[in-house]
Amino acid sequence: xxxxxxxxxxxxxxxxxxxxxxxxxxxxxxxxxxxxxxxxxxxxxxxxxxxxxxxxxxxxxxxxxxxxxxxxxxxxxxxxxxxxxxxxxxxxxxxxxxxxxxxxxxxxxxxxxxxxxxxxxxxxxxxxxxxxxxxxxxxxxxxxxxxxxxxxxxxxxxxx
Length: 160
Prior knowledge:
It is built from eight helices and no strands.
């Protein structure tokens, strides 16, 4: 699952950079959807299945549909029609299609590798559920909640 974590993380970084650098709002939205799905893959690879599912349902589903409707409502006139024709060219879709294909390959690899005995041993050695993901993300140092609450020690205690 480390392979899936690193690939999803790399895709999230690349897609987010394309969101920031793109001047076309529709292309930026496509890359934002890919970025949100990749972040969901990171959550799934850490064992936080509920957080990954919420990422897909809330962000990639509901909020992205809202963004698409706003962009559609901002259609300003004749020059926009020519711009929309430019969006439909095949070379525009190469980047999002490539990142989506890599993400699909990682998902298929993760699904097919679940019954692998090496993975079973890894899962049996680790804690189950989201506690492991929280411990992995917050180990050592103070978390934002601890800092906001004014707790001096902070951090998630490690199990011996």
